[in-house]
Amino acid sequence: MAKAEIKQYIEAAIARGLGQPEIEASLKAVGWSQDDIAAAFSEQEITSLRRDFDAMNARLSRLEGRPVLGGYQPAVSTPVNTSSLRPIANQVIKPESVESKVTGKWFAVIGIIALLFGVAFFLKYAFENNLIGVTGRVIMGLVAGPAFVFLGNFLSSKEKYRQYSFFITGGGLALLYLTVYAAFSFYHLVSQPIAFLFMVVITALGITLSLLEKSENLATLSLVGGFLTPFLLSTGVDNQFGLFTYILILNLGFLAASFFQRWHKAYLVNFVGTYLVFSLWFENFYEKSKLFPTLFFLSIFFAIFLLAPFLRSLWRRAVSSSTDFALTAINAAVYFGLSYWLLKPDYEPYLGFFFAVGALVHVFLAQLISYSHREDRYGILALGGLGLVLLTAAIPIQLTGRGITFAWLIEAVMLLGAGFWLKNYYLRAFSVAVFTLATLRLLITETYHRTTAGWQPLLNDRFFIYLVFCLVMFMVAYWYARRQLELTPPEKKLSTLFGLSANLLLAFTLSMEISMWAQEKWRLLREAAQTPNVFKPAFRESDTWRSIQNARNLSLSVLWAIHAAILMVVGIVYRLRYARLLALGGFVVVILKVFLVDIGQLKDLYRIISFISLGAILLIVSFLFYRYKEEVKKFLLENN
Predict the structure, then answer these.
(1) Where are the domains of the chain?
(2) Does residue 286 come out as left (phi exceeding 0), alpha (psi in the -120 to 50 range) or beta?
(3) Cα 328–219–224 angle (5° rounding)?
(4) Residue 175 and residue 182: Cα distance in Å, rounded?
(5) Which of the given ranges, 160-164, 252-256, 580-584, has the highest pLDDT on average?
(6) Is the pLDDT of residue 74 over 50?
(7) How many Å is the Cα radius of gyration of the chain?
(8) pLDDT per residue over 107-153, tens digit each?
């Protein structure tokens, strides 16, 4: 037997119009085996054919005037080749036509919405012209609403009108919402606790009916009607607590339904409706004095939309989908974006902590799912990933300057260590992303750095932070090299990538130190000569300026040559092909610089030192190759 949760997911995916390849890819992504997936598809196909056969049999029986037979029962339990039967079933049960969708569904939806607008306009008109007493208007709504619900429930028992009945029932529920909200907010006939109780009852009725009928359309229609009510009966007077409590009731009803059904359409309606009402209220009535009540309701809405996609995973062992992840990501983006905007003017120092708490909430929920339903890998990874994103975002919000760069570096190292310890590919992948972010920020913010009074080469904070990054990258390259057997194929190249990056960064760092040393000498020379503009010809033609420039160029050539030589030795000893190739590239750069640049710019002693140094280093490297030719050849052959 196929697993029930896979069959349930397949049926829901087919209802959304997905094909078998897409469904299989989604199931494999969350960890299900190919055998389980194939078994579920086989049973789903047989079940579908049984339904088609019963429909064909019932129709033929009615045409021939004979009793309707029972359902189709296969004679054997072996898998059935259904490909030849599928065309016959498609001829009997044809897909719904465009005309049927428009006239049968969309006209019904538009009709219900038009009816709601008409009732709302009638209530306002009757109130303004005193045509019917206030109590009479409410009584009419309380009678018409249940009448529509009863009629819809009656029609749902007849298969021919089943889909149509949901629109009638949804319209009745919307009328009840409209009436009770008007009685409280518009006419002030009932107190808030009584109105609250009525709203709870109506919401419970709508959710119960939609669950009994297993109709997402009914749940969606009742929610649409519920969210239309505040717009239709708006008086232009602020009632924050009453309005948001009403929206909260709708949200809680949807949350209760999410325990039994995963209805993405209803989620979207609820989400859009909630934040549309919130946005319009915010634009018209928000003041700073209402910050904490506003944030309180906003946080409750966020918690509901965070829990809703994963309730079935927590308590009913259902498998999450990519849609659930997308909805959760949108919810987090909207909530934390609005909260940042609300809190920034007066509480900016605490915003990083606020985001960190949000990260912990997501990670905690991911941990709950891992304990209750470890097979739901998609849900665990989605929530855990969002938590890490929020934590990464909290760092630049809370910290400034180099603190951001160091914090991201520390986060990346901790994530990588946890990824190796837990054998979790996704933690390691996110760690690489944070490493990249930290390195880019380092290069952007620390590359262009001016010297100040008291600056010393190699003894300054800029060199320190670059050196730390280089050491960490070498360490990470070592980690990846030692754990090759645990890595996925794409990760096996990361040891080389981090080693290459560390070497390039180290060469860049030392080169910048030499350039900054020259910059500091020029600054002191300019101050001594009282020449504010360093580019004045008279200043640049001085012997001292030329001496500093020659020393800088010579130092760069010698540094690059020594670095390339060390890389070559390390590459041979430790059998690192990338190090040897990088060393060869370094030697090419140094040779080109010496013969094309230094020969023209360096003078006398500096030119002599440059050529002799390069020649000596190249001869030493060449001698080592000849001296240990056999060992080197052995290393190269083994490595390749």
Answers:
(1) 4-92, 105-286, 417-526, 542-640
(2) beta
(3) 85
(4) 10
(5) 252-256
(6) no
(7) 36
(8) 656 666 676 667 666 666 666 666 667 777 778 778 877 887 787 77
